[in-house]
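Ticket 4471: requesting a sanity check on a complex prediction with magnesium ion. Repro inputs:
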Amino acid sequence: MSKERIKIAPEMFEIMPPEYQDLVNKATFGNETRGWKDIGTAKELIEEHSLCAGCPESMAFRYILASLPAPEDTVMVGSTGCTSLVFPHVAVHNIHSLFGNQNAIASGLKRALSVRFPDRHKDVVVLAGDGATVDIGLDMTLQAWFRQEKFTTICFDNELYANTGGQESGLMQKGFVAKMAPVGKTFEKVRLPEIARESGCHYVVNCTVSKPNLVEKVIKNAIYVAREIGPTYLQLYTPCILEIGKNSMEGLQEMRDSEKPTERFAYKEYISEPAKELLAEMAAKEKERKAAAKKQLAGQSA
Ligand SMILES: Cc1ncc(C[n+]2csc(CCOP(=O)(O)OP(=O)(O)O)c2C)c(N)n1
Ligand code: SF4
Ligand SMILES: [Mg+2]
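Returned structure tokens:
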């Protein structure tokens, strides 16, 4: 994994767009410790977006893209919805699937990449809204988990169909009235994290994106477990501020309010036994790496 993959031939450098030159010079490709702390000092893999001002999905994209372990070896699969407006601005390979089909597309893609690149980790990450993941795409979502496909599914849960003006989704909370669902939701929010666990996911987290360090941790864990063991699922609350009547500065507070212990986005995590073993091994290696780096530093300054 290195910048070699995106390097520009010296003769061509001057004629490439400045954004691409910047990407080659300042992106964190190949840096094993890349994470949200690089935001602001390194070239980000998304700098502009076409979401509403202050939409928490934009924060979520920033943190996720900064945390991918190997963006140069990652393919993201999107679906129709507000998220799909962002993908044209993202400097990671991505595919737009037909609404709801994202986990079927990702299954084929992951298998094909494993055959084509048997010696390299190629990470596949699905990123879709709640309507795509739970309502229209539920069959594809579940079947990929049943088959133990080795990729990560991320759902940006804003609890409705935002992109089409506010229709009811299975993940909407009971009683909520949206612009295009005036009667109010008559049944409880579908418990997809629990369904994911029961359908074979090895790492499942339900949380908000208010804390970048937490988002980084769960993204990395989900991708590492998907590489080695099997399907993983992250349900991230990215409130649609437009639909819940908040202004552009209020998205963060809305997430903080919704992650309190009794609220629906209180942190919830499930890790299977093989995934626990893998993550423990990785943590031990990381500890060794840090200790060795510290020792080397001490040796240099002695
Ligand atoms: C096959 C198909 N069915 C329906 C639509 C219309 N459609 C576009 S976006 C959308 C809702 C998206 O909701 P969600 O997945 O929750 O994403 P959000 O916009 O909330 O981020 C729908 C129903 C479509 N584009 N394609
Ligand atoms: S409609 Fe809602 S979810 Fe979509 S970009 Fe605007 S605030 Fe974000
Ligand atoms: Mg939605």
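Notes from triage: Residues 80-83, 98-99, 128-132, 136, 156, 158, 161-164, 169 surround thiamine diphosphate (ligand 1) (CB under 6 Å). Leaving this open until the requester confirms.
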